[in-house]
């Protein structure tokens, strides 16, 4: 039982990190559920129908998902952030309806037969992705991302290709979400398009907002709290959306600039503390 | 048959337009997305259910208008007043989204998560008349009449009255409007009241059309209005109306031609195409800046 809960915490953590990577470049994506679905179905087809082992299948799914993200994001990321929110919502609906009508992977009835993922696999994935993000946070790339997020016009004037940086972050986020989806599918053994509802994408974004967005440990906290606490407190499980929503609303209110406003955080950082 | 589908599409499209108008008003004035809007739309149907259960369903119209408007004021107070800066766009969107989640969950807890039957027995909702072999329901005509009356009233209010002029001034530039002595907060509240009230009435109309109040439509039917607003051009009232009707008919036609559930994708695909092709919306450049809210 505890292993299951830890497994889902790990999956949610991977998804939260995928949102975090996109947010690093200053964009909000509601399509992580869709990329999760793409990863889950693509890797499932590879393992069940073609007999590949899980790891190469998951990696191939991640590459496919990143490629699709680039295709979608290329036009959308050049315009204002608000458009990307709408485009990603649209993608989530399209992917879900598309899968429901795709007979090859079972349509509405669902797709089954995947197996092989367990707590160890997901822990390894969390460790690898976490190490990569940690490496990113101490590399010069982090400063480029910070510049793009804080003020993309200034970043542009410094010679940074902001459109490319945003696109790369979106694609990497999609790849991470696809890995999460692949592991999810191979643990559940059976998935349906309903499993990748728009609500999944919304919740994952809210995990990150709840935990904090200025470092890679915020999403860890948010995902862990929101996955594990309802398992132990009955009230929390029953009233989950209400309590969760109110907590987010109140938290945003008492940080007037909002947790997403990185400007406050960097202003504080520049007064001596180091990230 | 085809004509019947088109008339169905027009009715659905009119409701899309009514919700999209609310999104576009808020985008036009504040340049922010109000994600509590779809859930206020959903709640309009629930108001219809409550009114049908206790009094007459006709009372639901004023009640839905007022309740929806008050919800709009609450949304503005909680999710938008503190987040006025340019950077806070995403914060405001997330805050209103969370508020919407709370509203849906409370609705689930009070009225259950299944669609509830309004118990409409009056002949108006079931009967109709036949022209050239196509059956029209009276309720469809009522819906069209009410939506067009509301849209016309809104159009006149925005373009002819002094309150409308203030709204347009704030949409143009909040700072300049404030310098000219316009109470920007009051204008913002007005916009939220009107947009949410229209959404609640649209939700009520949908409930009357289908006979049930469904607590799940916020994130499906309601969110489609975001796409319609983008197709019509953000902040463009007339664009939102035309795009709503267009998408309603288009969806009915995809259904007619046997695409089945793929029809659900129509609006999103249309939005992606429009955003790629002309970012300012389908009707950008077709009329002067004054038409924009």
| Neighbour order of strands in the largest sheet of chain B | 1-4
Q: How many individual domains of chain A?
A: 1
The overall average pLDDT of chain B, rounded, is: 83
Unreliable segments of 5+ consecutive residues of chain B: 286-293
Number of domains of chain B: 1
Q: Could you please say which CATH topology of chain B applies here?
A: ABC transporter involved in vitamin B12 uptake, BtuC
Evaluate the radius of gyration of chain A: 18 Å
Number of helices of chain A: 13
Distance between the termini of chain A: 37 Å
Largest sheet of chain A: 2 strands, antiparallel
* Beta fraction of chain B: under 5%
Structure in a nutshell:
The complex is a heterodimer of chains A (275) and B (293). With 275 residues, chain A is mainly α. Chain A contains 13 helices and two strands, in the order ααααβααααβααααα.
Task: Give your account of this protein's structure.
The complex is a heterodimer of chains A (275) and B (293). Chain A is mainly α. Chain A has one domain (2-197). Chain A has helices at residues 2-24, 32-49, 54-76, 81-100, 119-137, 140-150, 152-157, 162-188, 198-211, 217-232, 234-238, 240-254, 262-269, and strands spanning 111-112, 190-191. In chain A, helix 1 (2-24) runs parallel beside helix 5 (119-137), helix 1 (2-24) packs across helix 9 and helix 9 (198-211) packs across helix 10 (217-232). Mean pLDDT of chain A is 83; it is low at 260-275. By secondary structure, chain B is mainly alpha-helical. Chain B has helices at residues 2-30, 37-54, 60-80, 89-111, 138-160, 162-172, 174-179, 184-210, 221-232, 237-256, 266-277; strands at 116-117, 128-131, 134-137, 212-213. In chain B, strands 1-4 form a two-stranded antiparallel ribbon. In chain B, strands 2-3 form a two-stranded antiparallel ribbon. Chain B is globular, with a radius of gyration of 19 Å. The model of chain B is unreliable at 286-293 (pLDDT under 50). Chains A and B meet through helix 4, helix 9 and helix 12 of A and helix 4, helix 9 and helix 11 of B.
């Amino acid at each position: 039982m505890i292993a299951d809960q830890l497994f889902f915490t790990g999956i949610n953590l991977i998804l939260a990190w995928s949102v975090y990577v996109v947010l690093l470049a200053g964009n909000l994506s509601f399509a992580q559920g869709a990329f999760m679905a793409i990863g889950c179905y693509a890797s499932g087809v590879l393992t069940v129908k073609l007999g590949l082992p899980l790891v190469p299948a998951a990696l191939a799914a991640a590459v496919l998902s990143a490629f699709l993200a680039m295709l979608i994001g290329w036009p959308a990321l050049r315009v204002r952030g608000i458009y990307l929110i709408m485009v990603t919502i649209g993608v989530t609906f399209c992917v879900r309806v598309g899968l429901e009508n795709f007979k090859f992977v079972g349509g509405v009835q669902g797709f089954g037969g995947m197996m092989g993922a367990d707590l160890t696999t997901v822990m390894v994935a969390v460790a690898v992705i976490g190490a990569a993000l940690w490496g990113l946070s101490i590399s010069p790339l982090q400063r480029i991302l910070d510049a793009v997020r804080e003020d993309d016009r200034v970043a542009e004037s410094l010679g940074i290709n902001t459109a490319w940086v945003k696109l790369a972050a979106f694609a990497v986020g999609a790849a991470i979400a696809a890995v999460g989806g692949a592991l999810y599918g191979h643990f559940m053994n059976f998935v349906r398009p309903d499993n990748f509802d728009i609500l999944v994408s919304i919740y994952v974004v809210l995990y990150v907002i709840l935990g904090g967005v200025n470092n890679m440990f915020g999403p860890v906290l948010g995902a862990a709290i929101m996955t594990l606490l309802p398992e132990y407190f009955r009230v929390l499980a029953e009233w989950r959306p209400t309590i969760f929503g109110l907590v987010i609303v109140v938290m945003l209110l008492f940080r007037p600039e909002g947790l997403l406003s990185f400007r406050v955080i960097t202003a504080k950082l520049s007064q001596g503390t180091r990230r | 048959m085809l004509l019947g589908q088109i008339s169905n599409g027009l009715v659905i499209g009119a409701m899309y337009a009514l919700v999209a108008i609310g999104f576009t008003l808020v985008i036009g004035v504040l340049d922010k997305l109000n994600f509590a809007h779809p859930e206020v739309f959903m709640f309009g149907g629930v108001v219809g259910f409550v009114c049908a259960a206790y009094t007459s369903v006709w009372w639901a119209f004023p009640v839905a208008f007022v309740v929806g408007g008050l919800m709009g004021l609450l949304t503005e107070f909680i999710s938008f007043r503190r987040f006025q800066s340019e950077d806070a766009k995403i914060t405001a969107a997330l805050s209103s989204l969370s508020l919407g989640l709370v509203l849906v969950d409370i609705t689930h807890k009070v009225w259950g998560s299944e669609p509830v039957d309004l118990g409409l027995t009056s002949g108006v909702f079931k009967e109709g008349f036949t022209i050239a072999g196509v059956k029209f329901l009276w309720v469809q005509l009522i819906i069209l009449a009410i939506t067009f009356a509301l849209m016309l009233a809104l159009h006149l209010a925005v373009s002819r009255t002094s309150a409308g002029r203030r709204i347009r001034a704030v949409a143009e530039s909040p700072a300049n409007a404030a310098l000219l002595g316009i109470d920007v907060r009051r204008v913002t509240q007005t916009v939220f009241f009107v947009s949410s009230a229209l959404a609640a009435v649209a939700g009520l109309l949908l409930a009357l059309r289908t006979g049930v109040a469904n607590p799940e439509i916020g994130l499906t039917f309601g969110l489609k209005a975001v796409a319609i607003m983008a197709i019509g051009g953000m902040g463009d009232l007339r664009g939102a109306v035309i795009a709503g009707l267009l998408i309603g008919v288009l969806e009915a036609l995809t259904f007619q031609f046997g695409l089945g559930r793929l029809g659900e994708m129509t609006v999103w695909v249309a939005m992606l195409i429009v955003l790629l092709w002309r970012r300012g919306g389908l009707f950008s450049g077709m009329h002067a800046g004054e038409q924009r809210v």
